[in-house]
Amino acid sequence: MWRFTILLLILAGFPGISLMSQKPSGNSDPDKPLRVEIPSASVNETYRIIPCGVNGMIMFFRSQEVTGDARTKWYFTCYDTNLQQVWVRSVPLFSDLDYRFSLDVADTLALLFVHSGKAKNPENNYEILRIALHKGTLVLNTGTLDPGAVVDAFGVQKGLAWLGVNVKGQAGKIVNVGLKKGLSKAFSLGNGSQIALLWMRPDTAANSVSAVVSRQVTKKNAEYYLVRYDTNGVIKREVLIGLQSAERTLTQVKVAEGIDGKEMLLGSYAQGITNSAQKSLPVGESTGLFASPVSGGNQKQISFYNYLELTNATSIVGESDIMNLKKKALKKNKSLSEFSLDYPVLVHDIFVKNDQCILTAEFFSPQYHTENFTDFDFYGRPYTNSYSVFDGYRFYNGIVAGFDTDGKLLWDNYIEIRNLVSFELSPKVMAYPSGKDLVLCYVSDGKIGSKIIQEGNVVEKLDFSTIDLLNTDDKLLSESKGAIVQWYGKYFLSYGYQDIKNVALETNNKRLVFYFSKLRFQK
Fold this sequence. Notes:
This protein is mainly beta. The protein has helices at about 315, 320-330; strands at about 15-20, 35-40, 50, 55-65, 70-80, 85-95, 95-105, 110-115, 125-130, 135-145, 150-155, 160-165, 175-180, 185-190, 195-200, 210-215, 220-230, 235-245, 250-260, 260-270, 285, 290-295, 300, 305, 345, 350-355, 355-375, 380-405, 410-420, 430-435, 435-445, 445-455, 455-465, 475-490, 490-500, 510-520.
């Protein structure tokens, strides 16, 4: 039975989460969650949080301070596990760069900053910032990419940084950077211009990198390969993992390693050729999930699982839609898998639990609202004009599925996502393994929504608990960019922007803050 630890208050809802907010002090109990608030002018400020395990966490942001060499200062603050400030450092970065990726490797945090696409500077610069967490030492590597190049993957291993780059209309590349001397070299993913990077990760055993690439063979067909390159771009291994045809297209690919010596490729696929309507979305629509194990340098098989055939399909895509398609399939004497209800889906990285590969993904859709205004024609007659305003991406369901080492789908489950709209296409649902259980949770409207499952079975239904505020008289008015991430052990961080009102205060009774809190999961 999951329960709350009683600290200062008892919360109904999120099973096993201890929630308490307090100002950090030197005598804070390390077992108690803490809360820090930073005054903010708007929710568009650039505060970000990176958990760094037992080494603490980094909070950083872009300031308004500009140096004479077209650089802007970014400030980085290290907090320990009791949310006590350890050090503060600043570093000037090119003004047209934005934060893109981070990796925590051997007590050193590596962050990648890339061109935002908004600046007039034609140079496509990037900068890699390494932070020695204990010392607070900051080391910067700077480089330049080809015009139009977009960094879609980043990895660091044994003093080498790898940037996976795609360029529209050209062959993708991998840039290899020696962090000690700052020397870099780039190599193409392969021959021809129609080759793109879908996934990349440095290998742990050697100075090499593994990648999944797609090669367009004809207008209707593409090949997919799992490739290992050395630092000079020499291909050490190449495995054909799938063929796009008029029937199926792989849309997102993730890879897990180390299960019975096999590599497992999981992701999403689309029925048929990717159409032009999907190109307006950062993530294309998909029909279902696929699984493909690779062993001994060979692909064993590839299996496809239509969303309509999942155990929880009716909870994910709607029972009436499925019933209509079943009638249509029966009428045409076809199987349900030959039909599709396509949705944009964001696929998470894979993790391994009990010798199973666990894949988590989130369904979302663009959300708009219509605004009207009155204008006048040449003769002064009024008429109404309307236009659509993009509100962000509405996330409405998360799915989780377990696969064995042969790529067989063993089970699936889901979590309903309520009232979560975001401009950022980043994972919202956190899946946390705890013994036999898997905890699914997310932050929305200042609350944690959670569901606890054991594979296909539900242990605790979806429930919500409020994240406690700093003062007893505080009232949450709104929240933006809320998130929850695992920190270390059974501890977590929640953070985001909150608009708070406190009528008990005579002055400054309304405030907008960026907050972060420490939480504990308790069995």
